[in-house]
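Appendix C: a fully annotated inverse folding record. The material below is reproduced so that readers can follow the format used throughout the book. The structure is listed first as tokens, followed by the designed sequence.
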């Protein structure tokens, strides 16, 4: 059976997949999240262990050392850099760029008939928290931004595995975050919920509704993303 490794940053990015997964197996791996399921005749390995390229590459390495992997998908959420990208859109990366616009690699087309957008994806080390940061990345050729794809791509290419990148848009190009999400990361780079909550309490009138909105968007985007991935040919 062909095995597809899906690597996200956070477990909740897989939360909306439940309707299409059926029975899942919890994998006893040293990661925040590791599950296995059979979807349309393929085995899906789903792993997540924190934000950023280094942690994503490490999660992929952990999975690859414990299971045979045929194809690799960097997945989860992304932010829009173009006004035409709307919240809830599925974004398929055609290539991955670094923050300075230099290329990491091309990505394979997953071949899905569901509606989606395509373009170059910027994979960066820090949250693109405001329109100015997003505009700068857009001027370097990217249409969307996230934080893990470069690490997953490096691992996949090193293993000779086909690399795909499929994301869902959770925030618009003209949005700003009131919460300092980078300041809420620990030494390993992971977001700490306690730090996020403390940061939100500094401006509760704005930050609490912002968190609630992001949570709602995440649930919506995760469901749309799971449905899309289930229909991909890979």
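Designed amino acids, in order:
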């Amino acid at each position: 059976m062909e095995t597809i490794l899906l690597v996200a940053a956070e477990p909740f990015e897989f939360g909306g997949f439940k309707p299409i997964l059926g029975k899942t197996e919890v994998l006893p791996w040293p990661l925040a999240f590791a599950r296995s399921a059979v979807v349309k005749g393929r085995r899906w390995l789903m792993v997540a262990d924190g934000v950023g390229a280094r942690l994503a590459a490490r999660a992929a390495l952990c999975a690859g050392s414990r299971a045979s992997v045929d194809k690799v998908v960097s997945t989860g959420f992304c932010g829009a850099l173009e006004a035409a990208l709307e919240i809830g859109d599925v974004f398929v990366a055609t290539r991955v760029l670094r923050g300075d616009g230099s290329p990491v690699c091309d990505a394979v087309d997953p071949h899905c008939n569901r509606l989606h957008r395509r373009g170059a994806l910027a994979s960066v080390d820090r949250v693109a928290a405001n329109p100015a940061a997003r505009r700068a990345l857009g001027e370097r050729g990217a249409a969307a931004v996230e934080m893990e794809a470069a690490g997953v791509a490096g691992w996949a290419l090193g293993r000779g595995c086909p690399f795909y990148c499929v994301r869902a848009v959770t925030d618009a190009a003209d949005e700003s975050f009131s919460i300092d999400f980078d300041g809420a990361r620990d030494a390993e780079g992971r977001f700490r919920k306690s730090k996020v909550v403390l940061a939100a309490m500094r401006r509760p009138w704005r930050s609490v509704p912002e968190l609630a909105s992001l949570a709602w968007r995440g649930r919506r985007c995760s469901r749309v993303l799971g449905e899309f991935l289930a229909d991909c040919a890979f």
